[in-house]
Amino acid sequence: MLTAIVLIDTDPDRIPEVASEVAAIDGVSEVYSVTGKADLVAMIRVREHHEFADVIADRLSKVRGVVRTETFIAFRAYSDVDLEQAFALGLDD
């Protein structure tokens, strides 16, 4: 499985709608609203490299309200920790 991390800048009034639409795209495994440089971060997982173009360029970037994207292709995973834990905020009970 190949992974890309996509930073997404959106129209401020459409962040929730963009997040929902992006999350519904095949190949998008998670979408997070975040603080910092981007409005959203999407995790893309595909089997073949050329599928990144289908998911990111052909679908995600054309969602109404997406202003700009920046894509990072993952070379190697150094941890087996569940991504949900890596992005979770708060304390364990």
Automatic annotation (TrEMBL):
InterPro entries for this protein: Dimeric_a/b-barrel (IPR011008), Tscrpt_reg_AsnC/Lrp_C (IPR019887)
Single GO cellular component term: cytosol
Taxonomic superkingdom: Bacteria
UniProt domain Transcription regulator AsnC/Lrp ligand binding: residue ranges: 6-76
One BP annotation, GO: response to amino acid
GO molecular function per UniProt: sequence-specific DNA binding
Entries under SUPFAM superfamilies matching the protein: Dimeric alpha+beta barrel
Protein name per Swiss-Prot or TrEMBL: AsnC-like helix-turn-helix protein
Originating species: Sediminihabitans luteus
